[in-house]
Amino acid sequence: MKKMKTKAFVLAIAIVLFAQSAADACTGIMLKTKDGKYVHGRTLEFGVEVSTSLVAVPRNYEFIGKTSNGDGMKYKAKYAMTGLITFTDVNIADGMNSAGLSCGAFYFPTFAGYTPLTKENQNKALSPLDFTNWILARFATVDEVRKAIENEEVVIVPTVLDGWGDTPPPFHYVVYDKSGKSLVIEPLKGKLVVYDDPIGVFTNSPSFDWHMINLRNYTYLKSENAGSMTINGVTFKQLGQGSGMYGIPGDFTPPSRFVRATAFVVTALPPETSFEATMDVFHVLNNFDIPKGFSREVVDGEIFADYTQVTLARDPNTLKFYYKTYDDQRIKEFDLKTFDANSKKILIYNTSSDQTVISVNNKLKPVK
Predict the structure, then answer these.
(1) How far apart, in whole angstroms, are the C-alpha atoms of residue 7 and residue 303?
(2) How many Cα atoms occupy the beta-carbon half-sphere of 139 within 13 Å?
(3) Pick from 271, 276, 268: which is nearest to 315 by CA?
(4) C-alpha dihedral sign at 236, 237, 239, 243
(5) Local structure of 58: helix, strand or coil
(6) Taking a C-beta distance cutoff of 8 angstroms, is the pair 101, 135 a contact?
(7) 57: pLDDT strictly greater than 80
(8) How far is Cα 80 from Cα 341, in angstroms, rounded to an integer?
(9) Phi (first) and psi of residue 244, to 5 degrees
(10) Could you tell me if 268 and 201 are in contact, meaning their C-beta atoms sit under 8 angstroms apart?
(11) In whole angstroms, what is the distance from residue 314 CA to residue 308 CA?
C-alpha cells in the first residue's frame, strides 16, 4: 500500500510539472473526402503513464458536475456517446456522440483561467473535464454549442480532479460536427472565449488566435518543389523531394506542431471514402508521434519522458471511433451504432494491450 501511495504521489507531482512544461504535445487535425465528408483525430501525450479506457454511455444517463464545494450542474445525456476517459472518472476527455458531434480537451498550461466558483453560479458549474462530457451529452452541432456558450449557460470552475495532481488541470477544447464546422473554446481570464477553427487544426498554448496569426510567418511554404537555380552558368537543382516545405518547423512545441499540422492538412489529397480519410488521419498523426526519451523532464533524478500514449480518429459519418496505443500499434474500432443507446449501463474497456506481430513465414511462395 505504501508503495502504491508513493507511486501515486510521484505521478501527481510529475503531472503538475508537465502541466507547466512538456505534457502539452497533443495535436488535432481534420481531413475532408472528395464528396465533402469530414473525419478528425488527435494524439494524446503525457510524461507519465496515464490509464485510459474506452467507454460507451447511453442517452438519459444523469451526470452531476464536480466543484470544489460539492455538486455543480446536473444534466442528463440527450445523446449516447463514446470516447476515452482517463483514470476512473467517467469524464470523456475525447469522444463523439450519436449525432456525430466530437469534442476533445487539450492541455492549455499557463493560459487557462477558469471562472471562480460562487453560490450564484454553482448550479451551472462544471469541472474542466465535466465540460467535455456536457458538450457531448447535450449538443448535436457546433452552432448549438456556440449558442449555449454565448448565452452563458455554463461555467468552468477550478476543480482538483482525481489523478491530475493537487491543482486544477488546465484545458482548452476543440469541437467538430458532422458538417465540418469546428469550434475552439478557451477559458481566458474567467470567461469562455469562442473561435471558429476553419482549418480544424488544434494544439496547445498559447491561445488559438495567436496560432492563427503565427501562420502568417509561413506563407512561403508550398507543396510543390522549388525550382533549380543557375549561377554563372552552373545549374543547382534541389537535392530531393520536399524542397517547397524547406524551413517548416520540426520540433514538438505547440506553435511548431500547429504550423506543421496545418501544412499536412492543406496538402492532403482528398480520398474517396471516410474510411480512407480516417486511415489518412492516422498517417498524418504518425508525424506527431513522440517516442519515449525525445521530450523529457527530470524529477529528483528520475526521467519522465513525454510520449504519445494514444492516437485516435473519429468518423462522424459512420459513428466509428478508432484508436491505437503506444504499446500496441494495431488500430481498434468501436461502432457506436452497435451500442444500445437506451441501455441503463455504461460500458468500459481499458485500452491497455500488448503489441502482436503477424508472421508471414507461411505466405511466401516459389517464384513461377
Answers:
(1) 14
(2) 24
(3) 276
(4) positive
(5) coil
(6) yes
(7) yes
(8) 5
(9) -70, -20
(10) no
(11) 18
Give CA–CA dist 222/266, Å, rounded: 10
What is the DSSP track for 340-358?
A: -TT-SS-EEEE--------
Question: For residue 252, how far is the Cα from the chain centroid?
Answer: 15
Number of other residues whose CB lies within 10 A of the CB of residue 164: 24
What does the block give as the cell for 315?
A: 468518423
Cell numbers that stand for 253 in this block? 512545441
Looking at domain 2-206+252-350, which CATH architecture does it have?
4-Layer Sandwich (3.60)
* Counts of helices then strands in the chain (DSSP H, E): 6, 20
- List, for residues 194-233, the tens digit of each pLDDT value: 999 999 999 999 999 999 999 999 999 999 998 899 999 9
> The pTM is what?
0.92
Structure confidence by residue, pLDDT tens digits, 148-192? 999 999 999 999 998 888 999 999 999 999 999 999 999 999 999
Of 105, 116, 131, nearest to 191 (Cα)? 116
**pLDDT tens per residue across span 256-295:** 999 999 999 999 999 999 999 999 999 999 999 999 999 8
Measured CA to CA in angstroms, residue 132 lies from 65, 104, 105, 229 at distances of 11, 7, 7, 52
pLDDT at 303: 87
Kind of pairing between the strands at 81-86 and 182-188? unpaired
